[in-house]
Write a structure and sequence with these properties.
With 351 residues, this protein is an alpha+beta fold. It is built from 12 helices and 10 strands. It starts with 5 loop residues before the first strand and ends in a 7-residue tail after the last helix.
Length: 351
Amino acid sequence: MTSNVTSDTVQVPEPVLHYLDRQGFAARSARVVPLTGDASDRRYFRIIETDGSTSVLALHSAPFDYATLPFVNVTELLQQVPLPVPAIYDQAGDLGLLRLQDLGDVTLQAHLGAVPAGEHAALYRRAVAMIELLQRRGDELASDRYVPYGMAFDVAKLTWELEFFVNHFVEAYRGAQLPYATREAIREEWKPIAEELSAEPRVLCHRDYHSRNLMAHQDELYVIDFQDARMGPDTYDLVSLLRDAYVDLTEEAVDDLIAFFLALRGQYDRHTDRSWFGTYQADFRRRFDLMALQRNLKALGTFGYQTTTRGNPVYIQYMPRTLRHVRSNLGRHPRFGRLQELLSTFVEELK
């Protein structure tokens, strides 16, 4: 196939060339620029037309049925909330392609480094407010029509993620050999964690709500990478944002944002008794810490998997911060003493 499409850096994949030729972009001498991908097997390309207009192609690993694609289904749901999400301009399921609104290249993680520190709190409050909106409207919009309502963080899923940490971080990345008895002892510690988290009332969760999945675009925060949304604890997305592997937040900032989240949920309005609210906030923080421990261990498993199995070392730089999160939560609650003892034998940063 011949094409007038040009790329400055890499060869353009055949499905992308086919789509651009079919849709007339090639005839208009559009340029294609590859974009940095995420931890999935999708690849992204920016189309730049001669008039300066842009859009983004998301190339999936295989053809898909547009009508049943989770990304499309969840996009419709989040638009109903409404949350700012990229518009879908076009699709070519036979080629495994979606053409999306271009939100630029500035994630919340990057934006924090470009604006004064005094603006950080307002940005995070906006991000936290979107979590509260997602949970509140998610309850009102619940329907079998939408994929996330049929999936949840149950005991099996939460336990699988904890095992993922052992398999891909402790063993594959760190090269540790865990005796059978040790693995069984760790599993015994996993059990009450997974059971307690699974038993919490479930809300609609983005599932990966952190500073690299929020895009700063035209004075708005847009949400991306939401195709794995599902039901889960009300602490899940808040943990993803505030115990982020990619950004440091002070404990004071975390406390303030948790209080802000609870205020948005109307706790102050329902109970003017400050002593009651203090007890409620303390219990929420306990549940937040439990969710953070599970979530951060899973993140380490993902980083190990990306490094050892996918040959993608970019996530190594985020391991130290995530390990600090885990160590902090292990040390904050006596119930995790035995788990800390077991894990620190093979991961010394957790001592």
